[in-house]
Amino acid sequence: MGRKWNNIKEKKASKDANTSRIYAKFGREIYVAAKQGEPDPESNQTLKFVLERAKTYNVPKAIIDRAIEKAKGGSDENYDELRYEGFGPNGAMVIVDALSNNVNRTAAEVRSAFNKNGGSMGVNGSVAYMFDETAVIGLEGKTEEEVLEILLEADVDARDVIQEDETIIVYAEPDQFHAVQQAFQAHGISEFAVAEISMLAQNDVTLDADAQAQFEKMIDAIEDLEDVQQVYHNVDLGK
């Protein structure tokens, strides 16, 4: 599972390099979550999850508050949650999640980003079956043994616990996301290197230098689209 965490780190590093883009995407996601339920994270688990993930990306409180206030104000702005699946070079698989107020525009833009960079769109289900929805929580300052003891004490199940460099990564079922966090918070841990529910590939592929360069260009083009919120793939970018 180590290479999957490398892919998440690569994604975070890429997005952190463009803070205005990541802040705009989180603003939209927070607004949608707040509008779909109560604008209070204590009673809206979807909003709570988004806010916890936003914290790991250092999204400013002003942006969070503005998005929630917009939802409270009864804005008539509506977004559809969309998922696209596609392919890159040499067995690369990609999942694209988007929030759109114009489905036709978003579909055309995502398709164009694939086609112009050596990829192709697939039909629904052509890729997703090769990925597992997984809660991923990373923290520093603890050993693998200490983390396992905390989870055991809280009676929380995890798929896997591994150490990479100074980071301990916990992989768990999506419905265990908050239970894992609460187990750590009970031990005074409130800062996480990563805290998100991701789509992790069952098997990663490694591309040669030319194919990887083309693939990364395609991913950049997709992530640059205003409506795209998340991009998942099965390419090992950790080398």
From TrEMBL:
UniProt-listed HAMAP family = Transcrip_reg_TACO1 (MF_00693), Transcrip_reg_TACO1_YeeN (MF_00918)
This entry's Gene Ontology molecular function terms read: DNA binding
Q: Which residues form the TACO1/YebC-like second and third domain?
A: 79-235
Under InterPro entries, the record lists: Integrase-like_N, TACO1_YebC-like_2nd/3rd_dom, TACO1_YebC_N, Transcrip_reg_TACO1-like, Transcrip_reg_TACO1-like_dom3, Transcrip_reg_TACO1_YeeN, YebC-like
Q: Source organism lineage?
A: Bacteria, Bacillati, Bacillota, Bacilli, Bacillales
Could you tell me the Gene Ontology terms of the biological process aspect for this record?
A: regulation of DNA-templated transcription
Q: Where in the cell is it found?
A: Cytoplasm
Whether DNA-binding counts among this entry's keywords is yes
Output the Gene Ontology cellular-component terms.
cytosol
Q: Which Gene3D superfamilies match?
A: 1.10.10.200, 3.30.70.980
Protein family per UniProt: Belongs to the TACO1 family. YeeN subfamily.
Every copy of the TACO1/YebC-like N-terminal domain together lies at 3-74
UniProt keywords (A-Z) are: Cytoplasm, DNA-binding, Transcription, Transcription regulation
Q: Per its record, how is this protein called by name?
A: Probable transcriptional regulatory protein XYCOK13_00240
Specify the domain of life of the species encoding this protein.
Answer: Bacteria
Task: Output the Pfam families linked to this UniProt entry.
Answer: TACO1_YebC_N, Transcrip_reg
Q: Which organism encodes this protein?
A: Xylanibacillus composti
